[in-house]
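Title: Prediction job returns without error message
Component: structure pipeline
Severity: low
Priority: P3
Assignee: unassigned

Description:
Job completed but the reporter wants confirmation the result is attached to the right record. Sequence as submitted:
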Amino acid sequence: MEWPAGERAVLHVDMDAFYASVEQRDRPELRGLPVVVGGPKDARGVVSAASYEARAFGVRSAMPLRTAARLCPRAVFVPVRMDRYLEVSRGVFAILDRFSPLVEALSVDEAFLDLTGCERLLGGPVAAARAIRDAVRAECGLTCSVGVAPNKFVAKIASDLEKPDALVVVPPGAVTAFLAPLPVERMWGVGPRGGGTLRAIGIRTFADLAAADPARLRRAVGAHAGALAALARGSDARPVVPDSSRKSVGAETTFPEDVSDPDALRETLVLLADRVGTRLRRDGLDARCVTLKVRYAPFRTITRRATLEAPASSTGALLGAAWRLFRERTPGAREPVRLLGIAASDFLAQPLLFAPREEARARRVDDAVDAVRRRFGTAALGRGSVVASGAVGRAKRGSGSGGARRAPSGASPEPPCPRNASSSSSVSSAPSRASSPFSSSCSVPSGGPTCRASRRPSSASSRSRPRRWSAAERAARSAGR
């Protein structure tokens, strides 16, 4: 198929069941068998990846391992070998780099390439897509599916449509016809929950969505209405950005003395999750993986990684995953801890338009807290269990409204690190949803605005007139309820 000269051409390359395929390649005896990557079948973790043989039984990523074992009793369960997957991933991306300088990695096993104007060098984007698939098979022993389209959104849908080992081409003039009959759940970022919302108002396909009344759509899905309608028409102007961006966001704390108090360690994890979550929300990122780092004396370091059921940026989701890892997959507080760290990674290239209900509610609370902190400073609001313990320093009294020191205009303040601990944050260039044991309510260091606290004035001079609440504080109170 010839690609129209001068038209934009974007490829989405997606490895097929990557982790499981690497295991089957490295262990030939597993080929043709249902393989589940994640750990022992009776463990409390979740599925990181499943081979297509296992998917035929209903096994899916992020499913509890025990559920996967019930669905597919004869599946072979293997541990995650992340170092090995990263090694193979580097080989795949080395192939992609030969075809274009514009390669945008979405994760270790998928990427966008811009091949606009490659006709003379590569014979056109379709020929290049075939060459990429042949090279990955010959050099890496794996298969990949490729979508070729005029933009990123359509290319990603195309690559997923006929997996595995598929090539789907959508020329510029065929975008509308290609998208129109697809169910709305196929839309990147919608999923089953968002699809249910749209179907409730009679929108079942991309064609229905593209033709929907804007006001009616806005009432159903809110601010995302315009973006959804544009995507349904195949409109996506996002460029392919070479992968120089971050691969993870993390924060860690080294204690001046080894700590074995579970409450103190728990409070530290609260603060670290809060700092990481603040950065993710500031930069519009949703993470699919959470990594916990624990260092015991003398310098014995353990890292544990969990895959979230759904991409998240809320402090509660990060904290729940980290706390579960700490309790269930490390010695916990049974040994003195010298360092704790949390990192979020495997970012979603496009934020979820319909987050799960718990995550959506947690984000509203976090967004309100972030707004207060931007206006009044990092000490204005803190997590209840941390403030009660004194881990967060008291806000400085000042002349500004609310009494807390203001952050610089436009800044995105981060929560403070634990008292008497050295803290560092990282921005790296490369389980079933756990309920958090911590309160999600917000508390206030002395002198700062409140989320659920009483409006009782704190000084005699203020008793003579009611306090005027800012919009950010009212939002925080509303979200806290």
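Comment from assignee: result matches the submitted record. The first helix runs from residue 18 to 26.
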